[in-house]
Amino acid sequence: MxxxxxxxxxxxxxxxxxxxxxxxILLLLFVMWLxxxxxxxxxxxxxxxxxxxxxxxxxxxxxxxxxxxxxxxxAKVSEASIELRSGLGFLEALVAISPLFGLFGTVYGxxxxxxxxxxxxxxxxxxxxxxxxxxxxxxxxGMVAALSGVFFTTYFKHKAVVESDKLEDRMQSH
Length: 174
Description:
Layout: H1 2-18, H2 21-60, H3 67-85, H4 88-120, H5 125-170
GO biological process, one term: protein import
Main location: membrane
Family: Belongs to the exbB/tolQ family.
């Protein structure tokens, strides 16, 4: 339990070094990872059940070759595709916003540098170091947050296409 408290203090010290914008990036990252976990749960736990239900309903049909049956098949595949893509736009938006929050932190930190320069003069490098730190750390944090979401967003988009195609292929006429 001691190590957990120490890590918490390290996180708080890092956030203090980067300024208050890091709290916003941390919140954004938390929401992003909640979305990633929700989509993972859907793809690996919920969707296989939905896919099996759709396929069993299709296999139970007597008519799978008429125009009407083909429209039902298209509708079922389309509904599954919508479920597979659900939430990906929001996740992509979170990934795109993350670096912008980092840039906002850069601007915030640079404003502190300019305030220090106005008060202490331009030659006090030690006084400006804190502002420069608050300018660079949020940029790095925003980029790391975005990178952590890019992989999963790309993976989920690919998986949605593949699973839609697989579902359509498994719904054969008989």
